[in-house]
TrEMBL record:
The keyword Nuclease does not apply. Coiled coil: none annotated. It is found in: Cytoplasm. Homodimer. One of its GO terms (biological process) is regulation of secondary metabolite biosynthetic process. Binds 1 Mn(2+) or Fe(2+) ion per subunit. This is Ferric uptake regulation protein. InterPro entries: FUR, Fur_C, WH-like_DNA-bd_sf, WH_DNA-bd_sf. Its cofactor is Mn(2+); Fe(2+). The keyword Zinc applies. Keywords: Cytoplasm, DNA-binding, Iron, Metal-binding, Repressor, Transcription, Transcription regulation, Zinc. It comes from Chryseobacterium polytrichastri.
Amino acid sequence: MDTLQKEKNIALIKDVLRNYLLEKGFRNTPERYTILEEIYGMDHHFNVDDLYLLMMQKKYHVSKATIYNTIEIFLDAGLIRKHQFGEKTLTSSSYEKSYFDKQHDHLVIYKKDSDKEIEEIIEFCDPRIQGIKEAIEGAFGVKIDSHSLYFYGTKND
């Protein structure tokens, strides 16, 4: 993605946040926009500890509590998505930006002989899953708005 498109995307998600904060009656703080920009600058999943360390390395003065509170706002605003990959970390939830992402699923690969330490997370989209979703909708008479699918494993030798 080129620089101009990235700038347009950042401006758009900032507008989404601004409108959300206004609608909910929340304070419009510069820290929230800084955290949002950092998240949308990442190309991988993250947890609160990762984000906090990144913010500290960049000399931002933001507490971990502020990050936790802001994460909850971003989740409710649809700007990020929460995952439980089953990893053994201090903060067990992982997150990813979600505003521009299409529906996808995850293959979580653990390191061999580890206690659920993640080696890699592969995002994939398989059109057969859409067919399964449509079959479930028909069988149960529902409209599925979203889904989560995780596969867990280790690499073969």
